[in-house]
UniProtKB/TrEMBL annotation:
Native species: Micromonospora carbonacea
Stored Gene3D superfamilies: Electron Transport, Fmn-binding Protein, Chain A
InterPro entries: Pyridox_Oxase_N, Split_barrel_FMN-bd
Recorded superkingdom: Bacteria
Domain Pyridoxamine 5'-phosphate oxidase N-terminal: 181-294
Pfam family, one: PNPOx_N
Protein name, entry field: Pyridoxamine 5'-phosphate oxidase family protein
Amino acid sequence: MRGTDDAVTPHRLTTADEVEAVVGRPAAMVMLKQVDALDEGCRALLARCPIAAFGYRDAHGVSRTTFVGGTPGFVRVHSPTRVSFSLPEPGGPRGPVSFFFLLPGVGEVLRVNGAVAARRGAATTVDVKEVWVHCAQAILRSRLWQSPGPAESPASAEWPVVAEPAVVVAGDGPLCQPGVAGFLAAARFLALSTWDARGGSDTSPRGDRQAVARILDGRTLVIPDRRGNRRADTLHNLLRDDRLSLAALVPGRNGVLHVRGRGVITDDPALLETMALRGTPPHAALVVDVEHAEVTGNDPIARSRMWAGDTHVARGTVPDLMALAGEHLTANAATSRGGPPAFLLKAVGAIPGATRLMRLALDRAYRSGLRKEGYDDVPPGDDRPR
């Protein structure tokens, strides 16, 4: 990060102990939900998924995040540990890469980390290393699948176009580029890519009810880090490698804001207070020194029609993602220490209607957690994740 001005570079968290003192440590159950291959449930989800966030570094080491896909089943599963897809963008990926897969209308996402195995033209083959289900909080915070504008016209399944807010940015820098500030002011959701000390890639969803990231000046963004499952991969990665990239979305639009830069973690009370919801500030924030920012069209988003209500996945047509996470937890519990007994998890899962009851309990927990964060307009039952 540049400079020493406290308004630009507030107090930083620079060690894992400092991060865990603020965020906490994840429960054993959280880490046990991660598996190393795509099982039948994951493959069923990918067959219905039309779009994914994708983070990678190119041959020059430049960090990039974008959205890929365009049609359901765009990822071809060759084996439980190998997939391929088309990435026509220049500057092809090298080494570790990461995805999260979005199902329109669904709260949870499927996260997949791996490494590029082959690249021929646009065809990109990836060896899968890590797979897990990510909770619905980012989707719910952002209301990603809810139209921000007036009611849809009966003649169109697409969302209405909402004017960008008029935003004036002080100074100069990448965030002063045409269209960037206005787009970001309307963006409620983004994909954030970071890399760990070994070069491993991780792309995570971030969402907020208003702007998901706020401009401090022409070169600086701040992104709130609200409470979650305490896994905090992004924060731990930034302690080792401060380079990051992100791709931000405005629900209902087909454009994407691409940002690259360097990030630090802060718990500065004055800065966090500016992002408080009903008096509840986030526990931390990312301050990003922006090196590049650009709004572009995104063909996969346009072709996926992810904003159209008729593309939203109907209940029961794909596995419930949290039930899938439970299966992963059960499989790992049989060979791990410190987690719940595998026999108990299997017994609970075998109870008739257990999946539905678990979903109802989880949805209630989501709503309770969001209210504690300061959200006073939590989605009703019809908008629950599936």
